[in-house]
């Protein structure tokens, strides 16, 4: 299983957030924002896995932490189907590890930024047990046609938080908007927020994520 950074609960955990970083980053990337979220950490565990190292075509084959290969400047062209399947399995293993620690599936939130966000959408919509929620930041819905065919009905009503920067120069804002529209057409409940930022997170978004986590976990 993947190595992870863990911010454990202060008492016995009854919920978990598994949070995937973006291309070229690692599990340390988002752990510093946990104190800023305004969530009760007494019974909430955060898991920040490190992506495997692999060559990324669009970066001249440079080996870096990545959840899947990107083969074109059009991120939704010639998608890395096998890479998504491998990362889906990695995330599946992390979910099962939390479940084996006593966390109900419906108390597990999947979160991700950029590549990580695409992976949590890909995995969460296909997962065979009801999850608490999905947080998809500055990303897009990958493998759209396959998602429609492979999605699990058990997570049809799982709430999804999507946030995107209106000046995003890496994952175009319109890609996020179109993904939201697709998911809405498929019947998912989307909480959408856009922000005056590039490919990043901002204080306003962190506050919104924390409020959404508190609402979702009750």
Notes on the protein architecture:
- The protein is of the alpha/beta class and about 220 residues long.
- It has one domain (about 5-215): Alpha/Beta hydrolase fold, catalytic domain (Rossmann fold, 3-Layer(aba) Sandwich).
- The chain contains five helices and nine strands; from the N terminus they run E-E-E-E-E-H-E-H-E-H-E-H-E-H.
- The protein has helices at about 80-100, 115-125, 145-150, 175-185, 205-215, and strands at about 5, 15-20, 45-50, 55, 60-65, 110-115, 135, 160-165, 190-195.
- The radius of gyration is 16 Å and the shape is globular.
- The mean pLDDT is about 95.
Quick structural gist:
This protein is of the alpha/beta class and 218 residues long. It has helices spanning 81-100, 115-124, 144-150, 173-185, 203-217, and strands spanning 4-7, 15-20, 44-49, 53-56, 62-65, 108-113, 133-137, 160-165, 190-195. Helix content is 30%, strand content 22%.
- End-to-end separation: 30 Å
Helix content: 25-40%
Q: What is the C-alpha radius of gyration, as a whole number of Å?
A: 16 Å
CATH class descriptor: Alpha Beta
Which consecutive residue ranges, at least 5 long each, have pLDDT under 50?
none
CATH architecture: 3-Layer(aba) Sandwich
**Assembly type of the shown chains?**
single chain
Q: In the CATH hierarchy, what is the superfamily?
A: Alpha/Beta hydrolase fold, catalytic domain
Query: In terms of structural class, how would the helical and strand content be classed?
Result: alpha/beta
């Amino acid at each position: 299983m993947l190595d992870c950074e863990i911010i454990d609960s202060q008492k016995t955990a009854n919920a978990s957030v598994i949070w995937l970083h973006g291309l070229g980053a690692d599990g340390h990337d988002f752990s510093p924002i946990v104190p800023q979220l305004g969530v009760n950490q007494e019974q909430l565990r955060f898991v920040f896995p490190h992506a495997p190292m692999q060559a990324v075509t669009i970066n001249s084959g440079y080996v870096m932490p990545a959840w899947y290969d990107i083969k074109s400047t059009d991120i939704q062209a010639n998608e890395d189907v096998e890479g998504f399947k491998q990362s889906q399995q990695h995330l599946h293993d992390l979910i099962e590890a939390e479940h084996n620690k006593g966390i109900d599936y419906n108390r597990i939130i999947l979160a991700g930024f950029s590549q990580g966000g695409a992976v949590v959408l890909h995995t969460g919509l296909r997962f065979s047990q009801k999850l608490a929620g999905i947080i998809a930041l500055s990303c897009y819905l990958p493998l759209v046609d396959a998602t429609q065919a492979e999605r699990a009905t058990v997570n049809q009503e799982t709430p999804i938080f999507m946030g995107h920067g209106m000046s995003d120069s890496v994952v175009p804002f319109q890609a996020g908007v179109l993904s939201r529209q697709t998911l809405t057409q498929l019947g998912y409940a989307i909480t959408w927020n856009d922000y005056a930022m590039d490919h990043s997170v901002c204080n306003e978004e962190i506050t919104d994520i924390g409020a959404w986590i508190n609402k979702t976990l009750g």
